[in-house]
Amino acid sequence: MRSFLLLATMMLSLSGCAFNSIFINYPSQIAPVKAQLNSATPQNAAKIVADEISGADGLLYAQEAGRSAQIAGDFTSSKQYYQQAVAAYSAFDDKAKVSLSDAGATASSLFLNDNVIPYRGPGYERIMLHQYQALNYLFAGDPQGALVEVRRSNELQSQEQARYQKSNKSVQAMANGTIDAEMNKLGKAAGSTTSSFLNAYSYYTTGMLHEILGEPNDAFIDYRKAAQISPNNPYLQKDLVRLAKELSMPQYDEFKKRWGDAVEPTKDQGQMIIMLERGFVPEKQSFTVPFTIEGNWQTASLATYYPNRQPVRQGQIQGLGTVLKTAPIADIDALAITALKEELPAALVRQAARIYAKAEMAQSVESETKKRRNQTDYASIAMQIFNVVTEQADRRSWLTLPEQAQIARSYVKPGSYSLMLDNNPADPIEVKSGRTTLVWIIDTGNYTRFYSIII
Amino acid sequence: MKHLKVVFILAAVIGLSACQSKVEYGDATEVETVNENFGSTDLQAIAAKMVDSMLTFPPVVAMTANDRPIIFVDKIKNKTSEHIDTESVTDSISNKLLRSGKFRFIDMTKVDSVRKQLDYQNNSGMVDPSTAINFGRQIGAQYMLYGNLSSIVKQDGSTKDVYYKMTMRLMDLETGLIEWSDEKEIRKVKSKSFLGL
After folding, report:
1. How far is A128 from chain B (nearest CA, A)?
2. Is residue B75 part of a domain?
3. Which one of A33, A141, A366, B149 is least enclosed by Cβ atoms within 10 Å?
């Protein structure tokens, strides 16, 4: 009777959540969105996930919907989706230190899996959300709104920096046996430099927006941070020398020695800034270990990334006279891998507790009499099946992000230019003397989309 | 059995009454602390302080003693990390200044509409030329009112500290001199509750 009740409640609790990522793994839910984005008709991609925004993982779906709309060039609806994600983040911020709903989610994660815990993105996702929202405002013709988002992202960046300094120690301190092996594997995949903790692309975007919207001093600060994370980007180096000269900063001499003198536009030239985003960030995979506890089958599933990272091609921009080569500024996949590495210790603690809870459940339904008489113990089998089926790794992450971001900048004569990225042509893009043309290129694999605005 | 019914009905009544949402009118000048974001109380505090400061500043008092100077209000620059409707702040301030009877205002946000209307009166052929208002008869502003709203936000675990500073200035357009300037500071601290939903 007891076992029957237990199973019945379980069925009830499960039927309520059949549509989110508790049973259907998250990457396979997003696969149709990515397929649409990588087709000639990306307009409907955002709508696939838009319905899920009201659910428990609304934050994640709002991010995906916002980014999908953005890739399709619909900046107005992208802005609305992102606003929902921003609201979800601030709701998390406002939660009490000991939150009953959090405790409830963690408790149910002990019987099912980590996917029942409402999604709360890692730091870099939240920063990128504001960075993309700033671009939405900019492309919608609201530079002041864009700067507000830039400042928000700056605030979060400094929080993340402080957290990184702490977590660097704590991540190392948590190291032991099994965790160690898994973390080392992830560490190798991500690289252990600061570039996998802090996002140079966000710093560069906020810096660039500061610069083109008339706040060169703030731009200089962000560019310097970006250069600390990604020191080998030639365009970033040139920007730093130029701004140091323009603002007569004390670092000017040092920068000049290291990277050569500032290249400045002539009077009639206009500036073209190119941001290139390539591919999609890799999906989390799961690795599952089956084992038995007192004769009952159980599994443990954890999320991981495959270590085989493909190098991303450098972009070649034709149509500006000479071929302009874009240079990588940040690997988003490395950031994702590091974020997972940081989450791993807590996930392992929950995993251990879950194994214990599930083993107890399996034992509680086991019938001693049936075992003695060698009869089939259906309750016990059902419970074991339940335990194995519900054990799903938490594979949620913002999947419509690019794999890598690259930048380039050039001074050209005013006029109309027909750009080509690796032989993919764009509509003519105009450059005006003394103004900046920002060209945002999103390459999803089969399709390349160009968005531009003159500031 | 009867008891059980009563208990059930009572529980249902209590349960339902708690779920009912209601709408109430509140006092528009009441202190609002729904969250730490820029809110009505901040707007009112800024407008009150700025108007009060300007109207009592001795040189401004002297300036308005025999004359009603003409001001135009430039946009207040939003340098915070929140999307704030700064036009609403300037509206409140110019409203109060105008109501004091000491200043006159030119509304730059309506220039386009005015131009369209005058164009219609003069060039459409629909309006009696003797009643049409001619171009070039408006009066130029003597002063410009402008400002900055900036913020510093700090967050650490359970505490969030938001500091706002509103700076406003009145510039004489002829001489470029700043005739008046003041600032209003607001600090809000939010601490998270320990236990909650």
Report:
1. 16
2. yes
3. A141
In a domain, residue B59? The reply is: yes
In this complex, do A96 and B82 lie within 8 Å of one another by their Cβ atoms? no
Largest CA distance in chain B: 91
Amino acid identity at A341: K
ipTM of the prediction: 0.73
The rounded distance, in Å, linking the Cα atoms of B195 and B197 is: 7
CA-to-CA distance for A448 and A424, rounded, in angstroms? Answer: 7
The boundaries of the domain holding residue B179 are 38-191
Using CB atoms and an 8 Å cut-off, which of residues 70-129 of chain A contact chain B?
93-101
For B79, name the nearest residue in chain A, comparing CA atoms only. Answer: A148
Distance CA A363, CA A293 (A): 9
Reply yes or no on whether the pLDDT at A14 is more than 50.
no
pLDDT the model gives residue B144: 94
pTM (two decimals): 0.82
Does residue A20 sit within a domain?
no
Q: Domains in chain A: how many in total?
A: 1
In a domain, residue A10? The reply is no
Overall number of domains in chain B: 1
d(CA A433, CA A316): 24
Alpha-carbon gap: B197 to the closest alpha carbon of chain A (Å) = 5
Domain that holds residue A288: 25-454
Alpha-carbon gap: B177 to the closest alpha carbon of chain A (Å): 24
- B-chain residue closest to A100, CA distance: B197
Would B129 be classed as within a structural domain? yes
**A130: closest chain B residue by CA:** B81
For A332-359, write each residue's pLDDT tens digit. Answer: 888 888 888 888 888 888 888 888 888 8
